[in-house]
Structure formats: structure tokens, C-alpha cells
């Protein structure tokens, strides 16, 4: 079944909601660091984004597959390096989804004060998970509606602010412009630029679902996003500086600046409209996260980095298992942070900028290693180096940036607390065959060691058993009564461990006529030996006088130190007692 692909408006709306929602916080954020120069830093960001248009256009044009920076590095370096970019992208989407959903519900809370923010945030994440599972076409319709309403709301806000300024003048802007700068202007612009780079977060999203777009749409989405960011973000920062004193922006309106601007320029109705718009467009950013991460993780699954379990699709062609997993991950992060998603800012900042850097690096590798691949456009070497340098500067600035709350952890520490477990998981999945082989080798080694140990124990026990069974018993008899000998055999079988028995008859030297007895004696012993095959029975005729001296002599001769047995059975009784005969056990 051919899946319907997205056009320009739908594709622009999906990724545009993410990048254009940044206007809700980036103006106040950049003013917080750059002060009156914030609008200039945002214009610099627009120039950097212009350079990245060509970089993204060249890479995705040559490799039109989902995955963004992951796809770029996968085709120019190794899978492990590409997995690093994938991990950073996933973290960026995770932070975007949680922060956007939570901030949307905070804006909604201004309108409906009884709203439970945590429950509402989980509900919003669930709604867009279900919407994404229903199919990208249905999702794009919602995203398009949100995007159009957002642009309408911002246009309306800009119109009323400009009308207000035309009537009341730009005195507030001039007052802000003349404020002294904390530190140097260079440092203010440096930190402001670093913070303002968050205003282009979401620009990478279009590359992660390029396979769902119609041919030629991708480059147009980049152009449209650049136009929106280049106009809206610097304009809103300029208008904010024209309406609100910088100290008030930093202290009171860091999260609700645009709503406050609407209230100042036209009243509460416009403030409420901007709040509703904030709820919708931040919700759209959640949707963008779901769509972007679905394309990325599906590509990683196809490359066998993740289990094939995630490739299962529903009737609408959505990888619903990936979406469910991402929903569970996002909710768990929300619960772990207990709704204080501000701690995710470090993850959001560093991961996004790292992805931008890796994409630029992938462009360089594509030029060098895959130069023969056809591509619709080419970024010049100078523009690539300038763009990468700008991202590095912003990355360094965000790493050095002190958190606004003195008790808050640094961006780096928060980022590492999420990045390290994530990269370990991806590394394990990437190398799971090698790890399983190593575990198999260790298991075999341990098994062989234990087997050898048990074999040694078994051999030792067998030797002990054999040594016990090898002990000889000697039975002295005067008669050839087979019934008595049978009792002897039963006794030995039931009470002793020996497998060797000597049946000895001591012949008196003076009694030379014992030939008939000896013949009967040997036949009797042969019968007993055949009857008890488990015991080796030997018949012996010894000349001498029975007593301790003869027993001692035979003990030394046969090297049998113990268990000499002499059994007499007068009548029908089987009697015996033990006496000490020079260290030899004698049973009489």
C-alpha cells in the first residue's frame, strides 16, 4: 500500500510548530543575557540558520532518508559514531516533548486555574501519542491548524504592538538601549547569542521524517522555517524591548513575556489569545517530537541497532511500538523530575546544539568521502566552517552559562546525567552480538572450570572408593561348609565395602592327607565366587599353625594391614568377637 506523502504546508507545519514555538521563550531568554542587544543576537542566529539551510539541503538531498544527523554520519563514518548523533537527537526530542507539554499546561493553567498541571501534562503527551499512532496524515492536519493559528496570533500581536508604538512612541526602547551593560558588550552578545541559538531548535526535525515528504518538499520546509525564525524572533525581541523595561523582563515575565506584551498593547483579550496560542503551538512541538523520533528510531531499527520488535506497524503505517515507548520514556522523565522540567534545559540545550554540530560535521565528511553522490545543492566550504564555528561558540556559551537559580545544577551536569545512561544503552544495543558472544565465552570458561573441578572431585572420590573397595578381607576356615561361606559373603556384602576376599585354610603340616578336603574346598570357593560376581573371591591353602604369629606373617606378606577376618560357626550359630592380635582386626 502506497502511503500518502506530505506536501509543503503539512511538512512545514509539523517542524514549524517546534521551531516557531521558541518565540515564546527565546525573546525573554536572549534579553536576559544580551539585554538591549537581544534582537541583534537573534538576527545573527538567523544568519547562522541561513548557512545551515544549504548544509541540510546538501546532506539530505544526497541521502534522502530519515534520521537527520544519524543518517548523515551513518553514510560517512561508522555506525557507532552515527549512534552518538542518534542518542543526542533522541534526548533532544525527549526534552522537547516534556518541556513543551509541561509549559503548554502552565500557560493553560493561566486560563483555567483549577487545572492539575502534572495530570494534564501526562494527558497531553498521551493525546499526541494516540494522534501520532493514528497516522502522520491525520497528525499533519492538526499540526497545520496549529501552525496557521500560531502565525495568525503572532501577526495580530505584532500589529497591535506596532499600532501602540506608533501612538505612544519608542521611548521605552530608547530607555532600554541606554541602560548600562553588565560586563562587556562582547560578553553580553556572546551569551545572548548562545541562549538565542535555542530559537532554532526544531530545524533538524524535517530531516528526520524526509521519507514521509513529497519530492522537493524538504528544501522548501527549510526555507519556510528560516523565514519564520528570521522575522518573528528578532521582531518580537525588538517589540518587547520597546514595551517592557529590561529589569521587569528578567524578573517577572521570563516565561509569559508575549502574553504580557499582548496585555500592554491591546488588553486582556489579546493576552488570553496569546496564552491559548502558546498552549496550541507548544502542543504542536510535542507532536513534532513524536513524528521526528518515530522516523529516527524506525531508521535505527532498520539498521539493527534497536530490536526488530519496534518495526511492527499498524494499519495506518505507524510504528506504534516506538511511539508507545517514547510516551512511556517521556512520562517517566516527567515523574522523575516531579514536574520541575527546568532541569531538562541542560539536556535540551547541549543535545540540540551537539546535533547541529554533528550535522555540519557530517556535511564535511559527505563532501570528502561521498563526493560522487548527486545532490540538488551544495554548501560552500566557508559557509560550513562558519556555521560549525557558530554552533561551537553557542555550545561553549551554554556550557559556561551559570544557571539562573543558584541552587540549580549546571547544564553540563544535567546533560550528562541523562546522556550517559542513554549512550550506554545504545552502545549495548549496538554491540549486543559481541557482548553476547563475550558472555557465551565467559560462560563456557566458567562451565569448563567447574566441569574440570567436578571431574577432579569425581576422580578423587573414585580413587577413594576404589581404595576402599580394594581393601582385602581374609577369612580363615577349617571346613568346606558352603552354607557357612554363604553367610560370610552375605555379611561382607551387607556390612563391608571390600571387593576382595581371601578364603584361607590353614593346613597342619603333620596332616598330609588333606587332598580330598582341598579339592572340595576349591570347588566350594569357585561356586561362591560365581554366586557373588561383585566380590573377587580367592581360595588359598596355607601350611602352618593358626595363630597371631601366622596372621602377622601373612599380613606382612600380602600387605593387608587391616580387616583380617576369622569366622567360626559352631552349630547353626554365626558368632564373632573382636580381639587385638598385634594391630590386626581378627573376628572369631
Automatic annotation (TrEMBL):
It comes from Labilibaculum manganireducens. It comes from the Bacteria. Keywords: Membrane, Transmembrane, Transmembrane helix. The chain crosses the membrane at residues 31-52, 82-101, 107-131, 143-165, 185-203, 223-244, 269-297, 318-337, 343-366, 378-400, 412-430. This is Amino acid permease. It is found in: Membrane. The keyword Membrane applies. PANTHER family: AMINO ACID PERMEASE_ SLC12A DOMAIN-CONTAINING PROTEIN, INNER MEMBRANE TRANSPORTER YGJI-RELATED. It is a multi-pass membrane protein. GO terms for cellular component: membrane. GO terms for molecular function: amino acid transmembrane transporter activity.
Amino acid at each position: 500500500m502506497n502511503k500518502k506523502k506530505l506536501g509543503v504546508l503539512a511538512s512545514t507545519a509539523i517542524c514549524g510548530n517546534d521551531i516557531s514555538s521558541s518565540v515564546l521563550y527565546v525573546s525573554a531568554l536572549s534579553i536576559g543575557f544580551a539585554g538591549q542587544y537581544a534582537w541583534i543576537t537573534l538576527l545573527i542566529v538567523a544568519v547562522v540558520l541561513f548557512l545551515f539551510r544549504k548544509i541540510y539541503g546538501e546532506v539530505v538531498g544526497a541521502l534522502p532518508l530519515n534520521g537527520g544527523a544519524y543518517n548523515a554520519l551513518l553514510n560517512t563514518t561508522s555506525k557507532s559514531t552515527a549512534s552518538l548523533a542518534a542518542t543526542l537527537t533522541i534526548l533532544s526530542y525527549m526534552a522537547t516533548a516534556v518541556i513543551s507539554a509541561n509549559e503548554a499546561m502552565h500557560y493553560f493553567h493561566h486560563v483555567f486555574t483549577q487545572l492539575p498541571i502534572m495530570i494534564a501534562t501526562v494527558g497531553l503527551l498521551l493525546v499526541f501519542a494516540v494522534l501520532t499512532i493514528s497516522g502522520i496524515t491525520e497528525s499533519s492536519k492538526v499540526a497545520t491548524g496549529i501552525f496557521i493559528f500560531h502565525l495568525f496570533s503572532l501577526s495580530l500581536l505584532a500589529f497591535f504592538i506596532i499600532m501602540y508604538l506608533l501612538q505612544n512612541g519608542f521611548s521605552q526602547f530608547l530607555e532600554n538601549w541606554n541602560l548600562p551593560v553588565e560586563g562587556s558588550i562582547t560578553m553580553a552578545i556572546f551569551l545572548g547569542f548562545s541562549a538565542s541559538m535555542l530559537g532554532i531548535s526544531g530545524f533538524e526535525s524535517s530531516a528526520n521524517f524526509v521519507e514521509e515528504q513529497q519530492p522537493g518538499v524538504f528544501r522548501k520546509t527549510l526555507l519556510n522555517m528560516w523565514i519564520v525564525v528570521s522575522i518573528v524572533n528578532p521582531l518580537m525581541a525588538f517589540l518587547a524591548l520597546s514595551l517592557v523595561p529590561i529589569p521587569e523582563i528578567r524578573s517577572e515575565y521570563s516565561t509569559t513575556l508575549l502574553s504580557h506584551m499582548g496585555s500592554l498593547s491591546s488588553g486582556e483579550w489579546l493576552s488570553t489569545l496569546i496564552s491559548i496560542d502558546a498552549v496550541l503551538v507548544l502542543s504542536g512541538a510535542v507532536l513534532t517530537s513524536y513524528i521526528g523520533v518515530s522516523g529516527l528510531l524506525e531508521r535505527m531499527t532498520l539498521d539493527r541497532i534497536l530490536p526488530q520488535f519496534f518495526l511492527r506497524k499498524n494499519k495506518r503505517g505507524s510504528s506504534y511500538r516506538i511511539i508507545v515507548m517514547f510516551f512511556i520514556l517521556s512520562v517517566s522523565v516527567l515523574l522523575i523530575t516531579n514536574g520541575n522540567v527546568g532541569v531538562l534545559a541542560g539536556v535540551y540545550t547541549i543535545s540540540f546544539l551537539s546535533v547541529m554540530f554533528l550535522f555540519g560535521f557530517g556535511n564535511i565528511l559527505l563532501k570528502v568521502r561521498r563526493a560522487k553522490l548527486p545532490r540538488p545543492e551544495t554548501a560552500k566550504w566557508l559557509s560550513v566552517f562558519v556555521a560549525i564555528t557558530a554552533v561551537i561558540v553557542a555550545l561553549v556559551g551554554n556550557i559556561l552559562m551559570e544557571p539562573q537559580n543558584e541552587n540549580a545544577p549546571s547544564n553540563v551536569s544535567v546533560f550528562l546525567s541523562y546522556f550517559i545512561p542513554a549512550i550506554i544503552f545504545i552502545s549495548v544495543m549496538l554491540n549486543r552480538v559481541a557482548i553476547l558472544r563475550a558472555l557465551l565465552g565467559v560462560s563456557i570458561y566458567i562451565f569448563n572450570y567447574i566441569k574440570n573441578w567436578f571431574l577432579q572431585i569425581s576422580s578423587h572420590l573414585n580413587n577413594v572408593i576404589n581404595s576402599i573397595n580394594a581393601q582385602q578381607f581374609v577369612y580363615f576356615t577349617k571346613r568346606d561348609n558352603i552354607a557357612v561361606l554363604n553367610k560370610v559373603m552375605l555379611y561382607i556384602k551387607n556390612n563391608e565395602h571390600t571387593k576382595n576376599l581371601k578364603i584361607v585354610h590353614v593346613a597342619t603340616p603333620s596332616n598330609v592327607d588333606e587332598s580330598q578336603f582341598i579339592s572340595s574346598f576349591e570347588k566350594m570357593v569357585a561356586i561362591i565366587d560365581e554366586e557373588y560376581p561383585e566380590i573377587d573371591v580367592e581360595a588359598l591353602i596355607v601350611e602352618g599353625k593358626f595363630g597371631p604369629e601366622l596372621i602377622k606373617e601373612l599380613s606382612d606378606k600380602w600387605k593387608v594391614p587391616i580387616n583380617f577376618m576369622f569366622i567360626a560357626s559352631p552349630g547353626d550359630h554365626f558368632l564373632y568377637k573382636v580381639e587385638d592380635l598385634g594391630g590386626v582386626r581378627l573376628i572369631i
